[in-house]
Design brief:
The protein is an alpha+beta fold. The chain is built from 5 helices and 12 strands. The longest helix has 24 residues.
Length: 250
């Protein structure tokens, strides 16, 4: 039924001259509960050619899923007198908390670097917006460090070949959200590319939010920060006292 809806919506737009993308996502809302171990999002849709041809034979598809942006400071470790210490640092204003790219084939075979940078079609093209003045080489080094760190955490990923196009019309990509994702609004932007140019693009939204007790704790920490902090301190002291009494009898 979902595929039929996607195709029907696309047919309603066939009066246009350019290629038409009709995107959809398997879950418009991801609920994070206790014991959340991650989930898999299915991003799918149709690419239709107003000329009546089968678009998949001429177009490549790239899907970019981005989480909420956040400011972040990256520090370098340097060994001084045999001790690893914080050295230089760099601040970025808008680092995405999650970033994943899936493409029908390697991006460097689809577009040139300039186009890839404009549309952020890869982890090395993420627009991080550094604050202050910083040398280009140093900026590139810190950006690469951030990408490497979040790749190891499963928050930044690429899957060149992760988009499949069936019947030269329908496409789909699967992207895994790990358990440590940040809550907020996620955007899944799909690009149709032909001849090295982006012909069409479309966006689908996904909301990741906490529910149940986790949601209560999150709201409490934001709206009643002082009370939340005092309760946390009291719980820590109480648990420490109980642990001490238990060990006293062992």
């Amino acid at each position: 039924m979902r595929w039929l809806f996607v195709i029907f919506a696309g047919l309603m737009l066939l009066g246009q001259r350019d290629a038409i993308l009709v995107p959809a996502v398997s879950q418009s809302e991801v609920q994070v509960r206790q014991g959340f171990t991650g989930t898999e999002l299915l991003l799918y849709g149709a690419i239709l050619d107003p000329r009546g041809q089968r678009a998949g034979a001429e177009y490549d598809i790239v899907v970019v899923l981005k989480g909420p942006t956040e400011p972040i400071r990256i520090r370098e470790k340097e060994r001084i007198a045999g001790i690893w210490m914080n050295a230089e640092s760099s601040d970025f204003r808008s680092a995405p908390s999650f970033f994943a790219v899936a493409a029908s084939r390697p991006v460097d075979e689809i577009v040139d670097e300039r186009t890839a940078a404009i549309y952020e079609l890869g982890t090395r093209f993420i627009q991080l917006s550094p604050t202050g003045q910083i040398e280009p080489e140093k900026q590139a080094r810190f950006a690469a460090g951030l990408v490497d760190l979040r790749q190891r955490l499963g928050l930044y990923k690429e899957d060149m070949g992760g988009v499949t196009i069936s019947e030269q019309v329908l496409y789909q990509a699967r992207i895994q959200l790990p358990s440590n994702v940040v809550t907020g609004q996620y955007t899944a932007e799909t690009f149709a590319i032909s001849g090295g140019r982006v012909i069409a693009s479309a966006i689908a939204d996904v909301e990741v939010r906490k529910v149940g007790f986790e949601r209560f704790v999150e709201v409490a920490s934001q709206q009643w920060a002082l009370i939340y902090g005092l309760v946390a301190v009291m719980l820590s002291i109480g648990m420490g006292w109980i642990a001490g009494r238990l060990f006293a009898f062992i």
